[in-house]
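Q: Predict the bound structure with FE2/S2 (inorganic) cluster.
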Amino acid sequence: MSEHDGTETTKAAEPREAFPAEVTARLERDAKEIIGRYPRPRSALLPLLHLVQSEEGHVSKAGMRFCADQLDITLAEVNAVATFYTMYRRRPGGDYQVGVCTNTLCAVMGGDEIFETLKEHLGVGNSETTEDGKVTLEHVECNAACDFAPVVMVNWEFFDNQTPEKAKQLVDDLRLGKDVAPTRGPSSLCTWKQNSRILAGFEDGRAGEGVQAAAPSLAGLRLARERGWKAPDPGDLPARPAEQDEEDAK
Ligand code: FES
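A: Predicted complex:
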C-alpha cells in the first residue's frame, strides 16, 4: 500500500472534497499539458497549484486533492508546498491582490505609511478582503523593485514610487472597475484568477508589453557605458592568494 493509499484509509470517515466532475475533466486536460512539460510529474506541482487557484481564486482542499491525484503524491506533500509559498492563497480573496511592500527600503521610503493608510481607507487588515470582494490587502516582501520604492503590486504588476494618496486612488479605481495601468509591463491588469492561469503556464502573450527595465534600474549600465567600464576578462583576473584556495578547500 502506498503512503497515498494510507492517507485515504486513515481518513476514510472524512468526505473526500473534490471539484464537480465537469471542472475536474476540464482541469485534467490542462494538467496533462502542464505535466508533459516536466521530466518528472511531481515537478509540475507549483504550476498545478496555480491552475487550481485559477479556478477558485484560492487553493482549496479540493484543489490540493486534485493536484495530489494528478501527480500521485500525498495530500500532505501538496499541503506542505501550498502552505510554504505565499503566492498561493489558502482562503477566498478579492479580484485584486494589493500587495504593499513593507520590506526595509520600501518601509523607510513610505511603505509602512501606505499600508496603514490603506488599512484604514479600506477598513480591512492584512490578508483581509473588502466587502465588495474586489481588493485583498497584503503585506509583501521585497519584490526586487527597490529602485522604485515604495512599491505596491496589484496581482504582481508593479505600481512604482507610490504615496499614500496615489495608493488610495489606486484601490478606489480598482473597486470602481476603472481601467488601471501598471507603471511597467502591460497597460492593463488581469484579475487574480486570470493571473493564476498565466502563472500555471498558459500565457496571454503580453509578457513583453510596455516598459520593462526603467531608467533607475539601468543607471549602472548607463554609467558604465559613459565611462567605458567593462567587466574584467575572466582569463585575465589577478591571481588568488594561496590562503584563499586553502580556505575554499576546507
Ligand atoms: S524593499 Fe520593496 S521592492 Fe525591495
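A: The chain has two domains: 3-84, 96-189.
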